[in-house]
Amino acid sequence: MTFKFDMPDVIPVFPLPGALLLPRAKLPLHIFEPRFLSMIEDCMKTSSRLIGMVQPYQARDGETRLHSIGCAGRLNQFSETEDGRYMVTLSGMSRFRIKDEVEGFTPYRRCHVSWAGFERDLGKIERDENFDRASFMAALKRYFDDRQLSTDWDTMQEADDELLINSLSMLCPFEPEDKQALLEAPSLSTRRETLTTLLEFALRGGADEDFLQ
């Protein structure tokens, strides 16, 4: 996989609780806040068109902070509604580590980031060699039934390992901290193990989560 741009050292970041983006996955977003409308407009003018999705969290001092690891997506679909809102889609490129926040005059946040350690994200589709699909799908079916969720099971059965695991990680209604754990998983196998643990925890009576659209 090659690109016509270098991964930039500074990117705009979009702190959105519960919204998870993973490499080679797609995340649709509905943009309506003025500061983020400005972010999209500025992003469209850059060669990379990258936006970093980051989970915010409430620190003990009451301040809203950003987790150190996020995932950058390339803005590759864009449409504007009649009332000035944007419907966009980000294609996941690579995770990054925040070094520090940029002080400046933009209404949205920007960060100096490092891409080191996430070279695999820009490579080939990952495989999960130890994936017991039958056992995993059985647990997933119990979870969907318990949460009264519906899906196209035939499509799920046919999806490759990475598409299946990453799509479920993004779409299942887990808490933001759980989403962060899925993001930070160093490999597809460890992400699948984390996902399985979260499904089993929920089936054992874990706290009910709200689904974030």
Automatic annotation (TrEMBL):
Arranged from A to Z, the UniProt key words for this protein are: Hydrolase, Protease
Q: Which PROSITE patterns match?
A: LON_N
Boundaries of every Lon N-terminal domain copy: 11-203
GO biological-process terms attached to the record: proteolysis
Write out the transmembrane intervals.
none
- GO molecular-function terms, A-Z: peptidase activity
What this protein is called in its record is ATP-dependent protease La (LON)
Annotated organism of origin: Planktomarina temperata RCA23
